[in-house]
Design brief:
heterodimer; A: mainly beta; globular; B: 4-stranded antiparallel sheet; about 0% helix
């Protein structure tokens, strides 16, 4: 079985500061990894995904994530956040032979002026 | 491409009543998913369709829940004899041939009083 743990439920940060949202996963098989963002009263939007190849993945809105197989982590980073990045961020995992996505509980990023 | 749409956006119902939600996927997306999201949690997988065939159902989907996707286009999710524990956001997503490219709708928020 697969599972996802997002280590921080809330992350407050000042505008223009760097941020890292942490994600660890558990799986006995090869995985695909994802980060989604959810703005208030909206559905989820895919930020980035890791399927294979380079362990550093770049996504939309200046976000990037690094896949670390030995530490089973997929942390999300942004060097300089904006007020508009305030949202809920979900890490998710799926196994390469399947079709189901397992989501973490989410991390609320709150960017302060 | 108008995106995934869901109707209604909000539904308030009394315990014991039946409700039905509709999801219209992106045209020509052959895969369709339903998820449930409760407050402070990530989406939980409910069921999955490939074209009109329902290929998997989560054990979260009790006998009171039924989903259909006639003709492989729109889908409906019905909850019979609603309970207060059914209160949640119900999300629909669709994807093309690659299952991991999921596009989410805005969700239907159900409140059972």
């Amino acid at each position: 079985a697969q599972s996802v743990t997002q280590l921080d439920s809330q992350v407050p940060v000042f505008e223009e500061a760097p941020v890292e949202l942490r994600c660890n996963y558990s799986s006995s098989v090869s995985v695909y990894l994802f980060w989604y963002v959810q703005y208030p009263n909206q559905g989820l939007q895919l930020l980035l995904k890791y399927l294979s190849g380079s362990t550093l993945v770049k996504g939309i809105n200046g976000f990037e994530a690094e896949f670390n197989k030995s530490q089973t982590s997929f942390h999300l980073r942004k060097p300089s956040v904006h007020i508009s990045d305030t949202a809920e961020y979900f890490c998710a995992v799926g196994h390469t032979g399947g079709f189901k996505t397992i989501f973490g509980a989410g991390t609320r990023l709150f960017v302060k002026a | 491409d108008t995106g995934v749409s869901q109707d209604p956006r909000h539904k308030i119902t009394k315990r014991g009543q039946n409700v039905t939600f509709r999801c219209d996927p992106i045209s020509e997306h052959n895969r369709l998913y339903w998820y449930r999201q409760t407050l402070g949690q990530g989406p939980e997988f409910l069921t999955y369709f490939q074209n009109e065939a329902q290929l998997e159902k989560s054990r979260l989907l009790s006998d009171r829940f039924s989903a259909e996707r006639p003709k492989g286009s729109f889908s409906t999710l019905e909850i019979q004899r609603t309970e207060q524990g059914d209160s949640a956001m119900y999300l629909c997503a669709s994807s093309p041939g690659t299952w991991y490219e999921q596009y989410f709708g805005p969700g239907t928020r159900l409140t059972v009083t």
